[in-house]
Amino acid sequence: MASKLLNIALAVFAIVLPAVAMATEFTVGDDQGWTINFDYEAWAKDKVFRVGDELVFKYTAGRHNVFKVNGTVFTNCTIPPPNEALTTGNDVITLATPGRKWYICGVNDHCANYGQKLAITVLEEWASPAPAPSPSTTTAPAPSSAYGISVSGH
Ligand SMILES: *[C@@H]1O[C@H](CO)[C@@H](O)[C@H](O)[C@H]1NC(C)=O
Ligand SMILES: *[C@@H]1O[C@H](CO)[C@@H](O)[C@H](O)[C@H]1NC(C)=O
């Protein structure tokens, strides 16, 4: 009996552990990269971002840039000082904390008029999942013993 439970526990770990070690790298905009007239809201919608994952902004250096901003600036497209920009054309941002994150292009009016802005929600990393019911609760005692408990409690 105990060894059977142990086997189940090991099987669960075997499934979960590879996911813990794996961080995902997202190329923003996929093949299109970081550019104007792309629907980044739609791009981000079906993706799950977690702490430890990476965003890669790919573009021709000089044409665009990347600013990490807050929600107000994102909505307003207020361009921050140039020295805060990422400008390499292959900018990698590691998602370090959970929560809402915003990125805009600061070149010309790409943010305000061409939709070059990305908002995502970053979840906790795999290693610290939300509390879930432990597997042992699903292997509850058989109905006969539950009946026995209710009788003894009477
Ligand atoms: C957002 O960033 C701007 C520019 O850095 C700053 O002035 C503003 O106070 C920030 N807003 C919030 C809600 O943090
Ligand atoms: C956002 O835009 C509004 C209206 O244009 C302005 O009043 C406000 O100061 C702007 N906020 C920031 C953070 O730039």
> CATH homologous superfamily of the domain at 23-126, by name?
Cupredoxins -  blue copper proteins
Name the hetero compounds present.
Answer: 2-acetamido-2-deoxy-beta-D-glucopyranose
Q: Can you tell me the CATH class of the domain at 23-126? A: Mainly Beta
Low-confidence parts, pLDDT < 50 over ≥5 residues?
137-143, 145-153
Quickly give the structural class.
alpha/beta
Report the count of strand segments: 7
Q: Please name the CATH architecture of the domain at 23-126.
A: Sandwich
Radius of gyration: 24 Å
Give, in spatial order, the strands making up the sheet with the most strands: 2-7-6-4
CATH topology of the domain at 23-126: Immunoglobulin-like
Q: Give the proportion of residues in helices.
A: 25-40%
- Chain-averaged pLDDT: 82
For the report, how would you describe the main beta sheet? 4 strands, mixed
User: Tally the helices: what do you get?
Assistant: 6
